[in-house]
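I wish you would study the pair of lines that follows with an eye to the fold:

===
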Amino acid sequence: MGRQQREPSPVGIVMPDLTSAKKALRRLLVHPLAKGRELDDPGTTILRKRILQEKKFLRSIYEEWYAAIANRVPRGNQPVLELGSGAGFLPLTIPDLITSDILKLPDISLVLDAHFLPFKASSLRAIVMIDVIHHLGDVRRFLHEATRCVKPGGVMFMIEPW
């Protein structure tokens, strides 16, 4: 059997189905300690945090992202919210950060669903999310909530390396 082909695009270009290639790449890149772990298991997130702290190259990538984000957060008194904070260490770069995750985890300020943010309108200076948006079931609903919660002139940072 050959590669599966997608339907032709409107301009007549046929793109290969990359699903199996993406799966193979993820299998190659998965850390041996995380192999076979359930994504929604809090233990997996705790393990990912440990891996992120121990892998110098990976940690340096996150440190670079965090520094770039911290330098661009608008000044003000309103809080900054990080979604999907479980494995990260952004609070070391942004003091008084509200950390959150959908799972109950150590060092998390709030357990919440990003589709229903528990904040008043225009009450946040910024929302930060790294490796999160692909987990959201309804991205439009989330963006509506984020727009509601972030003050005028505020920002939303999303890094989605996958």
